[in-house]
Amino acid sequence: MDIRRSYPSDLADEQWELVEPVIVAWKAQHPSVSGHQGKYAMREIVNAILYQNRTGCQWEFLPHDMPPPGAVKYYFYKWRDDGTDQTIHDLLRWQLREKERRLADPSLVAMDTQSIHAAVGVPADTTGKDAAKKVPGRKRCLAVDVLGLVIAVAVLPASAHDNAAGIALLDGVAEQTDTVKKALVDQGFKKAVVEHGATLGIDVEIVERNPTGQGFVPQAKRWIVEQTNGILRFYRRLVRDYEHRPASSRSRVYWAMTSVMARRLTDAVLPSWRTA
User: Fold this and answer.
1) Which residue from 183, 217, 228, 276 has the highest number of Cβ atoms inside 10 Å of its Cβ?
2) pLDDT in tens, 78-90
3) Are the C-beta atoms of residues 152 and 90 closer than 8 Å to each other?
4) If we measure between CA atoms, which residue out of 167, 145, 146 comes closest to residue 154?
């Protein structure tokens, strides 16, 4: 079979080497009933998922030189449901933190929410309207470390209060690690989040905005979660929520950050529209 020309979203050889061990182990644990290894290369399946994440295309619009949509869907949903997507993401996060001479798990996180428009066809029972921002759709909630790496992600209806988002994120952080002792949040989060954090041994600090500041003024340490939200917007599948299930929306975040971290670990750059 001819080797296809690469797309900018493809994993380079050294980046695939970071992901491959997890995929190989998964394949060994999920042998085919007939004993064959499968018709499509796992690297191509991963590249197809990353291509869709970056370009935002529908399943049926995946390029013809990639595995067919049905095969890519199968693995995307399988890895979403058994947590393989998060396993890959977390392993790269630990490696990147160690590369930056930090402990594998953080002691501080910054949390924030972002209301995202939902596409036509997304089930109404998983969406809502953010009354403050006038956005109908879902609320993407992130907890990140000081490097901007995702520690926990939650996806709720946009109508959910930031308190519900904060509680979900704190629970997600606590499930991931017991090292986090402090969480920084903005003024949208209220007393309920602070109290819930106390039950988990996490000190939640509400960072007050400077009343004299005009426009967007970065807040020390907490600004990094805003940067991560901005990075995710480069991945067009995340600009709008196209997923029928919130679990798929979470998986899209894991795959986007996997792409980001693989490049940071190998000192590569994914070109943006600003790149000459």
Assistant:
1) 183
2) 999 999 999 999 9
3) no
4) 167
